[in-house]
Sequence to fold (273 residues):
Amino acid sequence: MNNANAPLLIGIALTVLFVGIGTYMSIRWSLSGSSLSRIDAASQFEPLSCRIETVRHTYDTKRRTESCGHDCTNVYYVCVDRVQYVFSIVNNNNNDHNNTTATEEQYYYSSRLFIAERNKEQSLFDMGFTTDLNKDQCTVNEDENKVAYEGDADTPCFGLCPEGTIVDCWKPTTTAKTNNNNNNNNQKEDWARCGNEDCIKLVDPQYELDTAQDTADFQALFGYFMIGLGVAVAVFAFFCCYYRPNCCCCSKNNKNDYEDGEKENRGADDDDI
Fold:
């Protein structure tokens, strides 16, 4: 391979890579966003009231690392909460709802798992070789600004929902149930994030639909950015190697050839004089 053409070949390779990734992402997520935009959450789910029956809450302190630049890594500790609710529908017009012989599968549902982080604290003396096994970021301590679990934007309560709490919930509408072959219904698991087979939910479906739409729009936009980056690389490589052969990205041999050509031209001009 001619070293003089190496920058151009590298530019072509990067262009193919960036444009390929960008095209895939833009097409995939544009189609996904277009499909999501046609979904009406209100027609897919109807509101209900539910009772929190059981709260499953586990937590532990995790060690995390994040890059802070070239050859730089920050180490921090954080409390990771995992919350899942078992709940039942209130006033579901089922006479056996309070029957103690009823099975859990008939009248009780599990929510999806909610995961949240709190009390993030950077470790100034952790060099990455050891882990502080005694680190506790989960125990509430006002003096150290360590707070209790507060939930997130998609959780049904601020903090943990006490057992017996009545909360809003949603279930698929009759129309959605009868249209099992409808494309929107087939995608319900993707955007509604059902925690149980019947897709009875403690999270507002409209919120989850908006979140999925925002994600699709962002990914499609990033795909367009990758395409633009690939085109920019191609233009720069072409300009560098054909119009500016002495630029920094081209090989030394190409630069010398350019300088020799300049000297020959200057010599010919001097002979003419």
Summary: Confidence is low (pLDDT under 50) at residues 94-105. The longest helix spans residues 205-243.
